Amino acid sequence: MSISDRFTELAHIRDSLGSLAADPSRVVMEKILSPTEAMIAGKPTILVGTNNYLGLTFDPDLIDAACTAMTEQGSGTTGSRMANGSFFSHAALEREFADFYGVPSAMLFSTGYQTNLGLLMGLLRPGDKVVLDSHSHACIYDGCRISGADFFAFKHNDAEDLRKRLRRLGPDAKGALVVAEGLYSMLGDTAPLADICAVAKEYGAWLMVDEAHSFGIYGETGRGLCEEAGILDQVDFITGTFSKSLASLGGFCVSRHPEMQLLRYGSRPYIFSASSSPANIAAAHAALRAVRDRPELKEQLWANAERLHAGLSGLGYRLASPPSPVIAVRVPSHEDAARTWNELLDSGIYVNLVVPPAAPDGESLLRCSLSAGHSFEQIDRIVAAFETALGGADATRPHAASAG
Ligand code: PMP
Question: Is 185 a residue of the active site?
Answer without folding.
Answer: yes
